[in-house]
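Lesson 9: reading folded outputs for more than one chain in a single document. The general rule is that every protein is listed as its sequence immediately followed by its structure tokens, and records are never interleaved. Here is the first one.
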Amino acid sequence: MSINRRAMEIAPASDLCHGPGLEKGAVVSKKKDLEVRHKADSVESMLKSRGVYHVPNDEPGFCFAVGEELRRRYPNSDLRVEAPRLNFGGEYTFSSASHLGTKLDTGSE
């Protein structure tokens, strides 16, 4: 079942509880939810240390769900998620100039 990419971009965060790559109303296994949270933890640590992380888009909807999990954790951050042009293949790029708020501002005060 393919996911309408435009619908993913405008879907409210509450729809994520139905799971990555699934239509609204579908039930997600706890295993899939744990996979999303685990990957979000990995991406979060890389963003805090390097500010950018690339993830292959090998499972439709998975990286989108990871991005939404990170947006839920850091609602006021400068997190950017660049999706590949194709629904399958390519890579997602997660980036944060402020390293999700952990990088100190070196501006003059």
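And here is the second record, again sequence then tokens.
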Amino acid sequence: VIGISVHWLWLPVIVLLQLVFVCGMALGFSALDVYFRDMRYVVESANLVLFWIVPIFYSFDRVSQKYARLYELNPIAAVILLTRTVLLSGEPPNVGTLAKLSIVSILTLIAGTMIFQRIERNFSDYL
């Protein structure tokens, strides 16, 4: 059993990157939901798929090397992987995975913000 480690100080960074990603997704999908009311079902289905392809109930080691890089681009998988590394292994997070998560999270926030700002002026016509 690993005790409290100095590497736990990475947890706020990991959580912040997760928050940035989720905010980007929320902005984009909430804006689209105004025009496409069935967006809720798309999000629910995507969440179900994400749940099963994220290494919560299995180890990341079980993912084929062929798909490992692609797998790390999944922000939710990266959050789980980084959190496990910090909490369970007591090691610092992998810098490459942290960088990929940062890039994907920031790009998602930018895209979500752009979608929201672009179509928000017509919200009152549809609500």
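What the second record shows: The two ends are 53 Å apart (CA to CA).
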